[in-house]
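Lab channel / #folding
Pinned by the channel admin:
"Please post every new chain as: sequence first, then the structure tokens as a reply. Keep commentary short and put observations after the output so the thread stays searchable."

First post following the new format, from NK:
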Amino acid sequence: MFRGSIVALVTPMNQDGSVDFSALSTLVNFHIDNGTDAIVAVGTTGESATLNVSEHVAVVKAVVEQAAGRVPVIAGAGANSTAEAIALTKACDEVGADGMLSVTPYYNKPTQAGLVAHFSAIAAATDKPIILYNVPGRTCCDLKPEAVAELSRVKNIVGIKEATGDLSRVTPLRQLCGDDFLLLTGDDPTAMAFMLAGGDGVISVTNNVRPAEFKALCDAALSGDIVKARALDAQLYPLYGALFIEANPIPVKWAMEAIGVTERTVMRLPLTELSEQGKEKVREALAASEPV
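Reply from TO:
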């Protein structure tokens, strides 16, 4: 259900910083038309850090309604307070999300035992599938494979978004968690290698800009077509660095406007517009990754 090319969807905004729900609906159709396998609404790329709870749930609801069952919708539903994460998970459940992406608690640095207790409590609050999200570069908290293995035995914890970029984790995670546990990466530059090593897909930022090509890359890698996967990865490679030249989602939002997918680039403070140097780098990467 949550396999292949999954987009970490941006949240389009009006000039005043409010959510642009019309543009959001257009983006959902854009991804479905281009073959994206599933959509993550209000993850990091969707500016979850600066949307309030009512906005957060409203965006998830809008994506669910526009997708209308055509692709699964995964709601970003994590928090560094277990009680808040449970409340957000329940709210996203109520508006019809097919699954939840639950990030490791940031800033308060829990132990591995604390992480197991945190995610177990969240899973107990819903019947929906839970995907763990490990991104220590942002959270200063690393969910270790042994703790993931313990959590994989919880009925509705079905997978992990492993965003360390550490390919050495694929084999131990697969061995510890079993073949049915979903291994997704959140690191675009190593996504092809991750899938060829036994991963199940990627929750991608680059997918926002080149969804059809990223879908083709995932399909090739998951089917073992190494030659095609390498060719597509080489085509997209310039974007992997350029879209992170400044904090995500600053570059990807600008790129989407540059190619005409969205009408404007608006983010909420403390994120600011892409620098002129950044724009040049992204512009070059867009040209280099242009479909032939």
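NK: The chain has a mean pLDDT of 97.
TO: also worth noting, Residues 4-226 form a domain with the TIM Barrel fold (CATH 3.20.20.70).
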